[in-house]
Amino acid sequence: MLRFIRYGFSGVFALMAAAMLSIGVAQGHPLQAALPAAMLFVVGAAVWLGFGYQIRRVAMQGDAVRAAVTEVSATLFDAPAAVRPGYDMTVTSGRAGAALNAMETDAGFTAEGTFGDARVGVASHVSTLGRQVGELTHTYSYVVVDARGLDVPFRLTKQGAFDEVVQLATGDVTVGDEAFDAEWSITADPTLARAALDDSVRERLTALRARVPSVSQDVGPGTMSVVLTRHGLAIRWPGPLDVELAAFMRDLLLDMRRAILTHVDREALRAASAGGPHYRVAADPTAPPPSAELATLEDDDAEDADADAGRRRAQR
Questions:
Q1: Domain boundaries along the sequence of the chain
Q2: Does 285 score more than 70 pLDDT?
């Protein structure tokens, strides 16, 4: 993309300069046309050199990104994984990412493997489209874990003025943690959000968000988000990754994944006990749940109710 723009803009200025000089010669005033033509040539040369510098910078940063992803891939999975070129924006942007993939052709690298029973992916890319104020490029990354085909709305983003307006119309999803609810906009079923965002998860998400200003301007595309797409549950990170940070994100996502799948399966069990459809995840069994499992669910519900009653008594 940058090379196309470089040739295009530089060529336009060169053609304009040549046309102006040709017209001056044809009209018998070559000296009068020479100065503006020379200025256009200079502008075209500046454009050529400027884009050349940016192309070289992207290449150098691409080498750094590839080295970082290679280092991460050696320890993030049960076994070291190969690193391949590419960065799929549909992982963190859903269908909208397909259009972004077409526009972003800068250096990116991805590695995929397994960790326990989950598929895990990690990727970083150097972006010119997403560059921030005072930058020529910016690095964005993600870590993703599979969600067994689960397809339900689940998204956490930085709370902003637009989110507050939307929430006035649609209602606000909260988890009962005032500080957390003030920082995050939650798009999900309320009970699913509360199941996924327990105390430990909220604490780690808050700690992760606190690191964003060290790598990014925490506005617009420079913010961190957590999203569930057809690829799985992912953290979009507005900066580069290292081994420690990638492992932290992987473990956080796996805990959230476990809570989300457990919650949705329990809801499916309730539906099955009432004669409705059972499991909803593509990788799950389709046989009706056994009565023992339903009994366990009822026991768990009773324990949850007792715990809620205890919390209410403590608050009094």
A1: 75-262
A2: no
